[in-house]
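Reading is simple: each integer encodes one residue's backbone shape. The lines below illustrate:
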Amino acid sequence: MYNHIYSIVEDFVKAVEQEKRYSFFLEHWNGKRGPKRRLSIAQVISLNLLRFTIHVKDLKAFHRIVKVMDLIPDMPNYENFLKASNKAFPLLTAFMQLLLLQNQRNNESHVHFIDSTPVSTCLNRRIFNHRVTKDFATRGKSTKGWFYGFKLHGVCSEKGALEAVAFTSGNVHDSKMVEQVTKNLKGSFFCDAGYLKNSKELVELANSGRFIYAATRQNMNRLMSGEQWEYLRKRNIIESDWGVLKQNYFLEYHQARSMVGLFRHYVCCISAYILECRLKSFPRIKTRL
């Protein structure tokens, strides 16, 4: 599994090295002084993705597993591996965006589903003692109650492949994120009643090729075709993605010690999930920028 992931990531890093506009990623990784890193940036990214693929929640436990199995002969100590992982965060984000872009291009039906899910950063009883995300996270309310943290907004295809994601603070309303998460997409978007917008905004989105179909509330009467109703009933497809990310890939993480480490965890989690879904369908992914 590691060799397969590494071959994909190595192709991506080689493509980045040939693009001058992405040279700042490598400059951030190499640094201006200090000893040369034992691991390459492709190895660090591959190891971080492998951690979620084999479903290990804690980075320290994964580092111990790699050392015991002798998977990487030149594996540094945990502190240096953690620093290298955080240094690779910008390139990890670019890799995730590439995977999302590939899913967008592979969607031939032009049918999309929009939804959001709460991502807590601590338990509610520890809000006043929490320090890592206190300047960024906020309280929000979902169908399951109050939480403290962020919201993950996303778009997926009819087959459940994630096509776009965005993080906001927990108190941002879903309807305010429609333009941002769908800006590079076109087609029909089906969502729940939380994404209801006024007629003027719907016309502006329709003029750009984005047709929003939101479910109605109990006190509303709205005409819709049978096909639209069937698609609205399928909008739980993206909720299945959120369920797998939280249960199998440990999206919610309460042990982060920095914002970079927290969002590195989020990016690796989403990237590993997309990559594993793609590997089940395609034996080899060609990387193109």
Q: What stands out?
A: Residues 282-289 have pLDDT under 50 and may be disordered. The radius of gyration is 20 Å.
